[in-house]
Amino acid sequence: xxxxxxxxxxxxxxxxxxxxxxxxxxxxxxxxxxxxxxxxxxxxxxxxxxxxxxxxxxxxxxxxxxxxxxxxxxxxxxxxxxxxxxxxxxxxxxxxxxxxxxxxxxxxxxxxxxxxxxxxxxxxxxxxxxxxxxxxxxxxxxxxxxxxxxxxxxxxxxxxxxxxxxxxxxxxxxxxxxxxxxxxxxxxxxxxxxxxxxxxxxxxxxxxxxxxxxxxxxxxxxxxxxxxxxxxxxxxxxxxxxxxxxxxxxxxxxxxxxxxxxxxxxxxxxxxxxxxxxxxxxxxxxxxxxxxxxxxxxxxxxxxxxxxxxxxxxxxxxxxxxxxxxxxxxxxxxxxxxxxxxxxxxxxxxxxxxxxxxxxxxxxxxxxxxxxxxxxxxxxxxxxxxxxxxxxxxxxxxxxxxxxxxxxxxxxxxxxxxxxxxxxxxxxxxxxxxxxxxxxxxxxxxxxxxxxxxxxxxxxxxxxxxxxxxxxxxxxxxxxxxxxxxxxxxxxxxxxxxxxxxxxxxxxxxxxxxxxxxxxxxxxxxxxxxxxxxxxxxxxxxxxxxxxxx
Length: 550
Description:
Strand content: 15-25%
Structural class: alpha/beta
Radius of gyration: 36 Å
Helix content: 40-55%
Largest sheet: 6 strands, parallel
Number of helices: 21
Oligomer: single chain
Protein backbone atom coordinates (compact mmCIF):
# COMPACT_ATOMS: atom_id res chain seq x y z
CA UNK A 1 0.00 0.00 0.00
CA UNK A 2 1.44 3.36 -1.02
CA UNK A 3 1.70 6.33 1.30
CA UNK A 4 -1.06 8.17 -0.60
CA UNK A 5 -3.40 5.16 -0.36
CA UNK A 6 -2.78 4.76 3.38
CA UNK A 7 -3.43 8.44 3.97
CA UNK A 8 -6.71 8.25 2.03
CA UNK A 9 -7.89 5.23 4.02
CA UNK A 10 -7.05 6.92 7.33
CA UNK A 11 -8.88 10.07 6.24
CA UNK A 12 -12.04 8.17 5.31
CA UNK A 13 -12.01 6.18 8.56
CA UNK A 14 -11.71 9.35 10.64
CA UNK A 15 -14.46 11.05 8.59
CA UNK A 16 -16.92 8.16 9.09
CA UNK A 17 -16.13 7.90 12.81
CA UNK A 18 -16.54 11.66 13.32
CA UNK A 19 -19.81 11.72 11.37
CA UNK A 20 -21.32 8.86 13.39
CA UNK A 21 -20.13 10.28 16.70
CA UNK A 22 -21.43 13.78 16.00
CA UNK A 23 -24.76 12.37 14.72
CA UNK A 24 -25.27 10.53 18.03
CA UNK A 25 -24.24 13.64 20.00
CA UNK A 26 -26.65 15.86 18.03
CA UNK A 27 -29.59 13.48 18.50
CA UNK A 28 -28.91 13.22 22.24
CA UNK A 29 -28.44 16.99 22.60
CA UNK A 30 -31.72 17.82 20.88
CA UNK A 31 -33.53 15.53 23.33
CA UNK A 32 -31.83 16.68 26.54
CA UNK A 33 -31.22 20.37 25.95
CA UNK A 34 -33.81 21.47 23.36
CA UNK A 35 -36.72 19.18 24.16
CA UNK A 36 -37.11 18.40 20.48
CA UNK A 37 -36.05 14.79 19.91
CA UNK A 38 -34.76 13.91 16.42
CA UNK A 39 -34.41 10.44 14.90
CA UNK A 40 -30.92 9.35 13.88
CA UNK A 41 -31.46 10.02 10.17
CA UNK A 42 -32.54 13.64 10.78
CA UNK A 43 -29.56 14.11 13.10
CA UNK A 44 -27.29 12.66 10.38
CA UNK A 45 -28.83 15.09 7.84
CA UNK A 46 -28.00 18.08 10.04
CA UNK A 47 -24.38 16.89 10.48
CA UNK A 48 -23.99 16.41 6.71
CA UNK A 49 -25.59 19.82 6.08
CA UNK A 50 -23.04 21.36 8.44
CA UNK A 51 -20.07 19.52 6.92
CA UNK A 52 -21.11 20.56 3.42
CA UNK A 53 -22.07 24.15 4.47
CA UNK A 54 -25.52 23.83 2.86
CA UNK A 55 -27.50 25.13 5.86
CA UNK A 56 -29.55 23.77 8.78
CA UNK A 57 -33.22 24.05 7.71
CA UNK A 58 -35.95 23.96 10.36
CA UNK A 59 -33.77 23.08 13.39
CA UNK A 60 -32.09 26.50 13.65
CA UNK A 61 -31.86 28.40 15.93
CA UNK A 62 -31.07 26.54 19.15
CA UNK A 63 -31.99 27.92 22.54
CA UNK A 64 -29.65 26.07 24.94
CA UNK A 65 -25.97 27.06 25.20
CA UNK A 66 -24.93 23.41 25.23
CA UNK A 67 -26.56 22.79 21.87
CA UNK A 68 -25.01 25.91 20.37
CA UNK A 69 -21.57 24.74 21.54
CA UNK A 70 -22.20 21.32 19.96
CA UNK A 71 -23.21 22.92 16.68
CA UNK A 72 -20.05 25.06 16.73
CA UNK A 73 -17.98 21.88 17.22
CA UNK A 74 -19.74 20.29 14.26
CA UNK A 75 -19.06 23.39 12.14
CA UNK A 76 -15.36 23.42 13.02
CA UNK A 77 -15.09 19.72 12.30
CA UNK A 78 -16.68 20.28 8.91
CA UNK A 79 -14.19 23.02 8.03
CA UNK A 80 -11.33 20.78 9.16
CA UNK A 81 -12.46 17.90 6.99
CA UNK A 82 -12.86 20.17 3.96
CA UNK A 83 -9.35 21.54 4.33
CA UNK A 84 -7.96 18.05 4.93
CA UNK A 85 -9.66 16.79 1.79
CA UNK A 86 -7.76 19.40 -0.23
CA UNK A 87 -4.44 18.14 1.12
CA UNK A 88 -5.34 14.45 0.89
CA UNK A 89 -7.00 14.40 -2.53
CA UNK A 90 -6.69 17.61 -4.52
CA UNK A 91 -3.03 18.49 -4.03
CA UNK A 92 -1.66 14.96 -4.75
CA UNK A 93 -3.91 14.68 -7.77
CA UNK A 94 -2.70 18.02 -9.17
CA UNK A 95 0.92 17.14 -8.41
CA UNK A 96 0.56 13.81 -10.17
CA UNK A 97 -1.26 15.37 -13.10
CA UNK A 98 1.25 18.17 -13.59
CA UNK A 99 4.47 16.22 -12.90
CA UNK A 100 6.40 15.33 -16.06
CA UNK A 101 7.00 11.63 -16.63
CA UNK A 102 10.18 10.12 -17.99
CA UNK A 103 9.88 8.91 -21.59
CA UNK A 104 9.75 5.19 -22.31
CA UNK A 105 11.52 5.57 -25.64
CA UNK A 106 14.06 7.93 -27.14
CA UNK A 107 14.89 9.14 -30.60
CA UNK A 108 17.55 7.22 -32.51
CA UNK A 109 21.14 8.12 -31.61
CA UNK A 110 24.65 6.71 -31.90
CA UNK A 111 27.97 6.85 -30.08
CA UNK A 112 26.27 7.18 -26.70
CA UNK A 113 26.83 5.21 -23.50
CA UNK A 114 23.85 3.32 -22.05
CA UNK A 115 23.81 3.27 -18.25
CA UNK A 116 21.48 0.85 -16.47
CA UNK A 117 20.57 1.91 -12.95
CA UNK A 118 21.24 5.05 -10.92
CA UNK A 119 23.62 4.90 -7.94
CA UNK A 120 26.11 7.32 -6.32
CA UNK A 121 28.78 5.67 -8.50
CA UNK A 122 26.73 6.30 -11.61
CA UNK A 123 26.22 9.91 -10.53
CA UNK A 124 30.00 10.46 -10.49
CA UNK A 125 30.34 8.55 -13.78
CA UNK A 126 27.72 10.70 -15.50
CA UNK A 127 29.52 13.81 -14.23
CA UNK A 128 32.75 12.53 -15.78
CA UNK A 129 31.00 11.85 -19.10
CA UNK A 130 29.33 15.26 -19.12
CA UNK A 131 32.70 16.91 -18.49
CA UNK A 132 34.09 15.12 -21.55
CA UNK A 133 31.07 15.84 -23.75
CA UNK A 134 30.04 12.18 -23.97
CA UNK A 135 26.35 11.51 -24.70
CA UNK A 136 24.58 8.96 -22.53
CA UNK A 137 21.18 7.36 -21.89
CA UNK A 138 20.19 6.36 -18.36
CA UNK A 139 17.67 3.49 -18.13
CA UNK A 140 15.82 3.49 -14.79
CA UNK A 141 13.14 0.84 -14.04
CA UNK A 142 11.55 2.72 -11.11
CA UNK A 143 8.93 5.14 -12.49
CA UNK A 144 9.12 7.62 -9.61
CA UNK A 145 12.92 7.78 -9.64
CA UNK A 146 12.96 8.05 -13.43
CA UNK A 147 10.51 10.95 -13.25
CA UNK A 148 12.61 12.66 -10.57
CA UNK A 149 15.79 12.26 -12.65
CA UNK A 150 13.95 13.55 -15.70
CA UNK A 151 12.96 16.67 -13.73
CA UNK A 152 16.65 17.12 -12.88
CA UNK A 153 17.39 17.12 -16.62
CA UNK A 154 19.13 13.75 -16.79
CA UNK A 155 18.92 12.02 -20.17
CA UNK A 156 16.78 9.23 -18.76
CA UNK A 157 14.16 6.80 -20.00
CA UNK A 158 11.91 4.57 -17.93
CA UNK A 159 12.11 0.86 -18.61
CA UNK A 160 13.37 -2.54 -17.55
CA UNK A 161 17.03 -2.83 -18.64
CA UNK A 162 16.80 -6.64 -18.66
CA UNK A 163 14.39 -6.37 -21.62
CA UNK A 164 15.87 -6.49 -25.10
CA UNK A 165 12.98 -4.33 -26.34
CA UNK A 166 13.89 -1.57 -23.87
CA UNK A 167 17.56 -1.76 -24.82
CA UNK A 168 16.66 -1.53 -28.49
CA UNK A 169 14.54 1.56 -27.77
CA UNK A 170 17.72 3.03 -26.23
CA UNK A 171 19.58 2.36 -29.52
CA UNK A 172 21.88 -0.26 -28.00
CA UNK A 173 22.98 -1.34 -31.48
CA UNK A 174 24.57 2.06 -32.13
CA UNK A 175 25.86 2.68 -28.59
CA UNK A 176 29.53 3.04 -27.71
CA UNK A 177 29.15 0.85 -24.61
CA UNK A 178 26.70 -0.33 -21.97
CA UNK A 179 27.29 -0.03 -18.20
CA UNK A 180 25.19 -2.02 -15.70
CA UNK A 181 25.10 -1.02 -12.02
CA UNK A 182 22.08 -2.61 -10.34
CA UNK A 183 21.89 -5.78 -8.22
CA UNK A 184 24.52 -8.40 -9.09
CA UNK A 185 21.98 -10.93 -10.39
CA UNK A 186 20.13 -8.28 -12.42
CA UNK A 187 23.43 -7.16 -13.93
CA UNK A 188 23.92 -10.67 -15.30
CA UNK A 189 20.43 -10.56 -16.84
CA UNK A 190 21.19 -7.18 -18.40
CA UNK A 191 24.37 -8.58 -19.94
CA UNK A 192 22.46 -11.50 -21.47
CA UNK A 193 19.78 -9.18 -22.87
CA UNK A 194 22.37 -6.77 -24.26
CA UNK A 195 24.32 -9.58 -25.91
CA UNK A 196 21.14 -10.74 -27.62
CA UNK A 197 20.19 -7.23 -28.75
CA UNK A 198 23.71 -6.27 -29.87
CA UNK A 199 26.31 -9.08 -29.81
CA UNK A 200 29.26 -6.77 -30.55
CA UNK A 201 28.48 -4.10 -27.96
CA UNK A 202 31.07 -3.48 -25.24
CA UNK A 203 29.55 -4.25 -21.82
CA UNK A 204 30.88 -3.21 -18.41
CA UNK A 205 29.36 -4.32 -15.10
CA UNK A 206 29.85 -3.46 -11.44
CA UNK A 207 29.56 -6.16 -8.77
CA UNK A 208 28.99 -5.50 -5.07
CA UNK A 209 30.27 -9.00 -4.33
CA UNK A 210 33.71 -9.50 -5.87
CA UNK A 211 32.96 -13.18 -6.46
CA UNK A 212 30.09 -12.22 -8.80
CA UNK A 213 32.46 -10.72 -11.38
CA UNK A 214 33.27 -14.18 -12.79
CA UNK A 215 29.58 -14.81 -13.49
CA UNK A 216 29.17 -11.43 -15.15
CA UNK A 217 32.04 -12.34 -17.44
CA UNK A 218 30.49 -15.75 -18.02
CA UNK A 219 27.26 -14.01 -19.05
CA UNK A 220 29.21 -12.02 -21.64
CA UNK A 221 30.50 -8.88 -19.92
CA UNK A 222 33.73 -7.53 -21.42
CA UNK A 223 34.77 -5.90 -18.14
CA UNK A 224 33.47 -6.77 -14.67
CA UNK A 225 34.62 -4.40 -11.94
CA UNK A 226 34.45 -4.82 -8.17
CA UNK A 227 34.14 -1.33 -6.59
CA UNK A 228 35.59 -2.42 -3.27
CA UNK A 229 38.58 -4.10 -4.88
CA UNK A 230 39.19 -0.99 -6.99
CA UNK A 231 39.17 1.15 -3.86
CA UNK A 232 41.52 -1.21 -2.01
CA UNK A 233 44.09 -1.16 -4.81
CA UNK A 234 43.76 2.61 -5.10
CA UNK A 235 44.44 3.09 -1.38
CA UNK A 236 47.45 0.76 -1.52
CA UNK A 237 48.89 2.74 -4.41
CA UNK A 238 48.75 5.91 -2.31
CA UNK A 239 51.27 4.53 0.19
CA UNK A 240 54.70 5.88 -0.86
CA UNK A 241 56.60 2.82 0.35
CA UNK A 242 54.51 0.64 -1.96
CA UNK A 243 55.87 2.43 -5.00
CA UNK A 244 59.43 2.32 -3.73
CA UNK A 245 59.57 -1.23 -2.40
CA UNK A 246 60.23 -2.85 -5.77
CA UNK A 247 63.13 -0.50 -6.28
CA UNK A 248 64.60 -1.34 -2.90
CA UNK A 249 64.24 -5.06 -3.52
CA UNK A 250 65.75 -5.15 -6.99
CA UNK A 251 68.35 -2.42 -6.93
CA UNK A 252 70.33 -3.69 -3.96
CA UNK A 253 71.19 -7.00 -5.61
CA UNK A 254 74.85 -6.50 -6.47
CA UNK A 255 74.40 -2.81 -7.16
CA UNK A 256 76.40 0.09 -5.76
CA UNK A 257 73.36 2.32 -5.63
CA UNK A 258 70.95 3.36 -2.94
CA UNK A 259 67.67 5.22 -2.68
CA UNK A 260 66.39 7.97 -0.45
CA UNK A 261 63.47 10.31 0.02
CA UNK A 262 63.79 14.09 0.18
CA UNK A 263 60.84 15.55 2.10
CA UNK A 264 59.73 19.10 1.28
CA UNK A 265 58.44 20.96 4.34
CA UNK A 266 57.16 24.50 4.68
CA UNK A 267 60.29 25.75 6.41
CA UNK A 268 62.76 23.35 4.83
CA UNK A 269 65.54 24.21 2.35
CA UNK A 270 63.60 22.80 -0.64
CA UNK A 271 60.30 24.63 -0.15
CA UNK A 272 59.34 26.95 -3.02
CA UNK A 273 62.50 25.97 -4.92
CA UNK A 274 62.39 24.11 -8.23
CA UNK A 275 64.59 21.15 -9.15
CA UNK A 276 66.44 23.52 -11.44
CA UNK A 277 67.20 25.73 -8.42
CA UNK A 278 68.24 22.81 -6.20
CA UNK A 279 70.66 21.37 -8.81
CA UNK A 280 70.70 18.00 -7.02
CA UNK A 281 72.45 16.16 -9.86
CA UNK A 282 75.07 18.86 -10.44
CA UNK A 283 75.88 19.35 -6.74
CA UNK A 284 75.56 15.82 -5.36
CA UNK A 285 75.29 13.47 -8.34
CA UNK A 286 71.91 12.07 -7.21
CA UNK A 287 69.07 11.61 -9.69
CA UNK A 288 65.38 12.31 -9.23
CA UNK A 289 63.42 9.19 -10.24
CA UNK A 290 59.99 10.61 -9.37
CA UNK A 291 57.96 12.27 -6.64
CA UNK A 292 54.80 11.91 -4.56
CA UNK A 293 52.38 14.78 -5.01
CA UNK A 294 49.43 14.65 -2.58
CA UNK A 295 49.80 10.89 -2.23
CA UNK A 296 50.15 10.16 -5.95
CA UNK A 297 53.47 8.97 -7.34
CA UNK A 298 54.51 10.62 -10.61
CA UNK A 299 57.61 9.87 -12.64
CA UNK A 300 57.45 13.24 -14.39
CA UNK A 301 58.63 16.18 -12.29
CA UNK A 302 58.74 19.62 -13.88
CA UNK A 303 62.22 21.01 -13.20
CA UNK A 304 60.97 24.60 -13.22
CA UNK A 305 57.96 24.26 -10.91
CA UNK A 306 58.50 25.31 -7.25
CA UNK A 307 58.12 22.39 -4.86
CA UNK A 308 55.24 22.63 -2.39
CA UNK A 309 55.15 21.41 1.21
CA UNK A 310 54.23 17.75 1.38
CA UNK A 311 56.06 16.79 -1.83
CA UNK A 312 58.43 13.83 -1.45
CA UNK A 313 61.21 13.37 -3.99
CA UNK A 314 62.40 9.85 -4.77
CA UNK A 315 66.19 9.97 -5.28
CA UNK A 316 68.83 7.49 -6.45
CA UNK A 317 72.58 7.64 -6.10
CA UNK A 318 75.66 6.03 -4.61
CA UNK A 319 75.93 5.85 -0.81
CA UNK A 320 78.59 8.60 -0.89
CA UNK A 321 76.39 10.88 -2.99
CA UNK A 322 73.40 10.40 -0.69
CA UNK A 323 75.59 10.94 2.39
CA UNK A 324 76.73 14.27 0.93
CA UNK A 325 73.08 15.22 0.39
CA UNK A 326 72.23 14.26 3.99
CA UNK A 327 75.12 16.35 5.33
CA UNK A 328 73.58 19.45 3.78
CA UNK A 329 69.84 18.76 4.02
CA UNK A 330 69.44 16.63 7.14
CA UNK A 331 66.88 15.92 8.60
CA UNK A 332 64.89 16.20 5.36
CA UNK A 333 66.57 13.19 3.69
CA UNK A 334 65.33 9.78 4.74
CA UNK A 335 66.67 6.43 3.57
CA UNK A 336 64.30 3.74 2.33
CA UNK A 337 64.33 0.99 4.93
CA UNK A 338 61.80 -1.78 5.49
CA UNK A 339 58.66 -0.08 6.80
CA UNK A 340 55.55 -1.64 8.32
CA UNK A 341 52.02 -1.04 7.08
CA UNK A 342 48.93 -1.89 9.11
CA UNK A 343 45.83 -2.87 7.14
CA UNK A 344 42.60 -2.71 9.18
CA UNK A 345 39.75 -4.63 7.56
CA UNK A 346 40.09 -7.69 5.36
CA UNK A 347 36.98 -7.57 3.20
CA UNK A 348 37.11 -7.14 -0.57
CA UNK A 349 38.87 -3.75 -0.27
CA UNK A 350 41.30 -4.93 2.37
CA UNK A 351 42.17 -8.10 0.50
CA UNK A 352 42.87 -6.15 -2.70
CA UNK A 353 45.02 -3.65 -0.79
CA UNK A 354 46.96 -6.48 0.89
CA UNK A 355 47.69 -8.18 -2.44
CA UNK A 356 48.90 -4.91 -3.98
CA UNK A 357 51.14 -4.07 -1.04
CA UNK A 358 52.69 -7.51 -0.76
CA UNK A 359 53.24 -7.62 -4.51
CA UNK A 360 55.37 -4.51 -3.95
CA UNK A 361 57.29 -6.39 -1.22
CA UNK A 362 55.87 -4.22 1.56
CA UNK A 363 55.57 -5.56 5.13
CA UNK A 364 51.84 -5.72 5.91
CA UNK A 365 50.12 -6.56 9.21
CA UNK A 366 46.43 -7.36 8.73
CA UNK A 367 43.98 -6.48 11.52
CA UNK A 368 40.39 -7.74 11.35
CA UNK A 369 37.52 -8.54 13.71
CA UNK A 370 37.46 -12.14 12.50
CA UNK A 371 40.49 -14.38 12.59
CA UNK A 372 41.51 -15.96 9.30
CA UNK A 373 44.35 -17.34 7.23
CA UNK A 374 45.58 -13.92 6.10
CA UNK A 375 44.71 -12.09 9.36
CA UNK A 376 47.69 -11.44 11.62
CA UNK A 377 45.83 -9.85 14.55
CA UNK A 378 42.17 -10.46 15.41
CA UNK A 379 40.70 -7.38 17.04
CA UNK A 380 38.82 -4.10 16.70
CA UNK A 381 40.60 -1.22 14.97
CA UNK A 382 39.07 1.06 17.63
CA UNK A 383 40.89 -0.87 20.37
CA UNK A 384 44.22 0.82 21.25
CA UNK A 385 45.61 -2.49 22.50
CA UNK A 386 44.87 -4.16 19.15
CA UNK A 387 46.65 -1.34 17.33
CA UNK A 388 49.61 -1.59 19.68
CA UNK A 389 49.79 -5.33 19.02
CA UNK A 390 50.02 -4.50 15.31
CA UNK A 391 52.89 -2.10 16.03
CA UNK A 392 51.14 1.23 15.53
CA UNK A 393 53.89 3.16 17.36
CA UNK A 394 56.48 2.21 14.69
CA UNK A 395 54.22 1.80 11.66
CA UNK A 396 54.78 3.97 8.61
CA UNK A 397 51.18 3.77 7.36
CA UNK A 398 47.72 2.64 8.46
CA UNK A 399 45.07 1.75 5.89
CA UNK A 400 41.53 1.65 7.31
CA UNK A 401 39.20 -0.35 5.05
CA UNK A 402 36.23 -1.10 7.31
CA UNK A 403 32.57 -1.00 6.26
CA UNK A 404 31.34 1.57 8.80
CA UNK A 405 32.35 5.21 8.27
CA UNK A 406 31.73 6.05 11.95
CA UNK A 407 34.06 3.24 13.01
CA UNK A 408 36.68 4.49 10.55
CA UNK A 409 36.44 8.04 11.93
CA UNK A 410 36.83 6.93 15.55
CA UNK A 411 39.70 4.58 14.63
CA UNK A 412 41.45 7.48 12.89
CA UNK A 413 41.27 9.57 16.07
CA UNK A 414 42.73 6.73 18.15
CA UNK A 415 45.52 5.93 15.68
CA UNK A 416 46.52 9.58 15.36
CA UNK A 417 46.76 9.81 19.15
CA UNK A 418 48.90 6.66 19.36
CA UNK A 419 51.28 7.72 16.57
CA UNK A 420 51.15 11.37 15.42
CA UNK A 421 53.56 10.60 12.55
CA UNK A 422 51.82 7.59 10.98
CA UNK A 423 50.30 8.10 7.55
CA UNK A 424 46.58 7.26 7.72
CA UNK A 425 44.65 6.34 4.57
CA UNK A 426 40.93 5.63 4.83
CA UNK A 427 38.19 4.36 2.55
CA UNK A 428 34.64 5.64 2.98
CA UNK A 429 31.27 4.71 1.53
CA UNK A 430 29.68 8.15 1.85
CA UNK A 431 31.05 11.40 0.41
CA UNK A 432 29.62 13.19 3.46
CA UNK A 433 32.11 11.38 5.74
CA UNK A 434 35.21 12.59 3.90
CA UNK A 435 35.58 15.92 5.71
CA UNK A 436 35.00 14.35 9.13
CA UNK A 437 37.78 11.84 8.45
CA UNK A 438 40.17 14.63 7.51
CA UNK A 439 39.20 16.48 10.69
CA UNK A 440 39.89 13.31 12.67
CA UNK A 441 43.46 13.25 11.33
CA UNK A 442 43.41 11.17 8.14
CA UNK A 443 46.09 12.02 5.59
CA UNK A 444 44.20 10.67 2.61
CA UNK A 445 40.54 9.68 2.15
CA UNK A 446 38.92 8.03 -0.84
CA UNK A 447 35.16 7.65 -1.28
CA UNK A 448 33.87 4.52 -2.99
CA UNK A 449 31.52 6.34 -5.41
CA UNK A 450 34.26 8.73 -6.54
CA UNK A 451 36.90 6.07 -7.22
CA UNK A 452 34.45 3.76 -8.95
CA UNK A 453 32.82 6.50 -11.05
CA UNK A 454 36.17 7.72 -12.28
CA UNK A 455 37.37 4.19 -12.98
CA UNK A 456 34.23 3.60 -15.07
CA UNK A 457 35.03 6.72 -17.06
CA UNK A 458 38.64 5.60 -17.49
CA UNK A 459 37.42 2.21 -18.73
CA UNK A 460 34.93 3.70 -21.18
CA UNK A 461 37.40 6.20 -22.57
CA UNK A 462 40.30 3.72 -22.34
CA UNK A 463 42.15 6.31 -20.29
CA UNK A 464 45.34 4.45 -19.50
CA UNK A 465 46.79 7.53 -17.84
CA UNK A 466 44.22 7.36 -15.05
CA UNK A 467 44.15 3.60 -14.68
CA UNK A 468 47.92 3.30 -14.33
CA UNK A 469 48.63 6.59 -12.62
CA UNK A 470 49.75 5.00 -9.36
CA UNK A 471 52.46 2.68 -10.64
CA UNK A 472 55.40 0.95 -9.04
CA UNK A 473 58.99 1.64 -9.97
CA UNK A 474 61.28 -1.13 -11.23
CA UNK A 475 65.04 -1.09 -11.65
CA UNK A 476 66.59 -3.24 -14.37
CA UNK A 477 70.11 -3.81 -15.65
CA UNK A 478 70.36 -4.04 -19.45
CA UNK A 479 73.31 -4.77 -21.75
CA UNK A 480 74.55 -1.69 -23.60
CA UNK A 481 76.39 -3.60 -26.34
CA UNK A 482 73.98 -2.42 -29.08
CA UNK A 483 75.04 1.16 -28.30
CA UNK A 484 78.82 0.65 -28.46
CA UNK A 485 80.54 3.81 -29.63
CA UNK A 486 77.46 6.03 -29.12
CA UNK A 487 76.51 8.49 -26.40
CA UNK A 488 73.25 8.34 -24.48
CA UNK A 489 72.12 11.49 -26.27
CA UNK A 490 72.54 9.74 -29.62
CA UNK A 491 70.63 6.57 -28.76
CA UNK A 492 67.99 8.30 -26.63
CA UNK A 493 67.57 11.88 -27.89
CA UNK A 494 64.08 12.31 -26.66
CA UNK A 495 64.30 10.73 -23.18
CA UNK A 496 60.90 9.76 -21.84
CA UNK A 497 59.65 11.02 -18.48
CA UNK A 498 58.68 7.61 -17.09
CA UNK A 499 62.20 6.19 -16.90
CA UNK A 500 65.59 7.42 -15.71
CA UNK A 501 69.09 6.19 -16.64
CA UNK A 502 70.83 5.92 -13.27
CA UNK A 503 74.29 4.54 -13.99
CA UNK A 504 76.56 2.44 -16.18
CA UNK A 505 78.69 -0.53 -15.07
CA UNK A 506 82.06 -0.80 -16.82
CA UNK A 507 84.75 -3.30 -15.88
CA UNK A 508 83.71 -3.31 -12.23
CA UNK A 509 83.42 0.48 -12.01
CA UNK A 510 80.17 2.24 -11.27
CA UNK A 511 79.75 5.34 -13.52
CA UNK A 512 76.97 7.67 -12.45
CA UNK A 513 77.14 10.34 -15.15
CA UNK A 514 75.97 8.66 -18.37
CA UNK A 515 74.44 11.94 -19.54
CA UNK A 516 77.88 13.43 -20.15
CA UNK A 517 78.04 14.31 -23.84
CA UNK A 518 81.59 12.89 -24.01
CA UNK A 519 80.59 9.58 -22.44
CA UNK A 520 80.34 6.78 -25.05
CA UNK A 521 79.12 3.24 -24.39
CA UNK A 522 81.43 0.27 -24.79
CA UNK A 523 80.48 -3.26 -25.85
CA UNK A 524 80.69 -4.79 -22.35
CA UNK A 525 78.82 -1.98 -20.54
CA UNK A 526 75.61 -2.51 -18.62
CA UNK A 527 73.09 0.25 -18.02
CA UNK A 528 70.96 0.62 -14.88
CA UNK A 529 67.48 2.05 -15.59
CA UNK A 530 64.68 2.95 -13.15
CA UNK A 531 61.14 3.42 -14.37
CA UNK A 532 57.59 2.19 -14.57
CA UNK A 533 56.85 -1.05 -16.36
CA UNK A 534 55.76 0.91 -19.44
CA UNK A 535 58.81 3.12 -19.15
CA UNK A 536 61.18 0.16 -19.07
CA UNK A 537 59.49 -1.26 -22.18
CA UNK A 538 59.88 2.09 -23.95
CA UNK A 539 63.55 2.19 -23.02
CA UNK A 540 64.09 -1.34 -24.35
CA UNK A 541 62.41 -0.32 -27.60
CA UNK A 542 65.03 2.42 -28.01
CA UNK A 543 67.82 -0.07 -28.70
CA UNK A 544 65.94 -3.12 -30.02
CA UNK A 545 66.14 -1.84 -33.64
CA UNK A 546 69.82 -1.15 -33.17
CA UNK A 547 70.34 -4.66 -31.76
CA UNK A 548 68.51 -6.38 -34.63
CA UNK A 549 70.51 -4.52 -37.26
CA UNK A 550 73.89 -5.80 -36.00
